[in-house]
């Protein structure tokens, strides 16, 4: 058997450098000139032969996190695939970007952050027809894997989609604190007054302790934005202050920043391979490309966008020094 002409690092570095096109064909066109340069099929085969699972991501992540500090943030995002209805893993999902249901691939990520670093530690691709697992199943399994890897986060942060009693109890059983938004129709019991919708309960600015039906005592907060939007937050840390809640909410927003960077800088949505195996491997390699940009941001203070722009600037300098496309003088 002939040796492979490209490996995972070749593809990752292509994702780091590419600006708009993130296809296997473009990866082949961008390779340094060589008699043995990989062709487009070499990258397609690479995406098929990569080992399944997320272990390769964790091997690169483990040196960037402090497992007994920081917080874990879990959320999902939809990778837009509007013209790929025959692509495996593509189905209808709600998109926070478009505010409607769209065609795409749903990606769940477990992110570690200390308020500055944004480090993806684990991920899952939602594909219930094939795996039989719901998003909540993936949620609990990723937390179990994190616990097995030695994580002892101060808090676990997530949105209201994942606030099922089974999820909340699973986190409590690990001895961890959680903080999440809670839907306004959840039933709580304030001071033995009976179970009432959360929206109807009086909540002072510093928060209030109530009993969540089926779970136990929690502390709830209510925030009102400048636009008048009302949000309810809940935690099993009964001593949490409003200042702590606000600080943790800012850290939870880091996963939205991560989602934007992953899509805009690493081409996670742009793969055109049709197989589920190829799509999963492209997603994992995109996360590994993001890790390189994030590690550089943390060490050099250069944003992901500036790092990618610097690659193009270098190419522009070379071209401007020796322009290729000119017009002969007519005078």
TrEMBL record:
<dbReference type="InterPro" id="IPR002559">
    <property type="entry name" value="Transposase_11"/>
</dbReference>
<protein>
    <recommendedName>
        <fullName>Transposase IS4-like domain-containing protein</fullName>
    </recommendedName>
</protein>
<feature type="domain" description="Transposase IS4-like">
    <location>
        <begin position="135"/>
        <end position="286"/>
    </location>
</feature>
<dbReference type="GO" id="GO:0004803">
    <property type="term" value="F:transposase activity"/>
</dbReference>
<dbReference type="GO" id="GO:0006313">
    <property type="term" value="P:DNA transposition"/>
</dbReference>
<dbReference type="Pfam" id="PF01609">
    <property type="entry name" value="DDE_Tnp_1"/>
</dbReference>
<dbReference type="GO" id="GO:0003677">
    <property type="term" value="F:DNA binding"/>
</dbReference>
<dbReference type="InterPro" id="IPR012337">
    <property type="entry name" value="RNaseH-like_sf"/>
</dbReference>
């Amino acid at each position: 058997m002939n040796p492979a002409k490209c490996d995972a690092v070749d593809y990752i570095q292509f994702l780091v450098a590419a600006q708009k096109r993130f296809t296997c064909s473009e990866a082949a066109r961008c390779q340094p000139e060589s008699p043995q340069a990989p062709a487009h099929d070499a990258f397609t085969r690479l995406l098929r032969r990569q080992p399944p699972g997320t272990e390769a991501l964790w091997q690169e992540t483990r040196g960037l996190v402090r497992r007994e500090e920081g917080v874990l943030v879990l959320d999902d995002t939809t990778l837009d695939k509007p013209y790929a209805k025959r692509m495996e893993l593509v189905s209808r999902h709600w998109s926070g970007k478009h505010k409607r249901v769209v065609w795409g691939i749903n990606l769940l990520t477990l992110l570690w952050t200390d308020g500055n670093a944004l480090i993806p530690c684990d991920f899952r691709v939602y594909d219930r027809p094939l795996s039989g697992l719901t998003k909540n199943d993936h949620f609990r399994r990723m937390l179990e894997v994190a616990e097995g890897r030695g994580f002892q986060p101060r808090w676990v942060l997530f949105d209201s989609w994942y606030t099922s009693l089974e999820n909340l109890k699973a986190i409590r059983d690990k001895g961890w604190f959680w903080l999440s938004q809670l839907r306004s129709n959840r039933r709580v019991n304030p001071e033995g007054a009976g179970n009432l919708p959360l929206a109807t309960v009086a909540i002072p600015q510093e928060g209030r302790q109530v009993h969540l039906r089926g779970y136990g005592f929690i502390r709830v907060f209510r925030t009102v934005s400048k636009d008048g939007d009302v949000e309810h937050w809940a935690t099993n840390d009964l001593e949490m202050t409003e200042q702590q809640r606000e600080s943790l909410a800012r850290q939870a927003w880091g996963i939205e920043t991560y989602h934007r960077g992953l899509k805009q800088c690493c081409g996670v949505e742009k793969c055109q391979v049709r197989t589920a195996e190829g799509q999963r491997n492209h997603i994992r390699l995109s996360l590994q490309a993001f890790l390189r940009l994030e590690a550089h941001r943390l060490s050099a203070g250069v944003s992901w966008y500036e790092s990618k722009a610097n690659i193009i600037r270098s190419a522009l300098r070379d071209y401007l020094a020796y322009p290729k496309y000119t017009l002969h003088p007519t005078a």
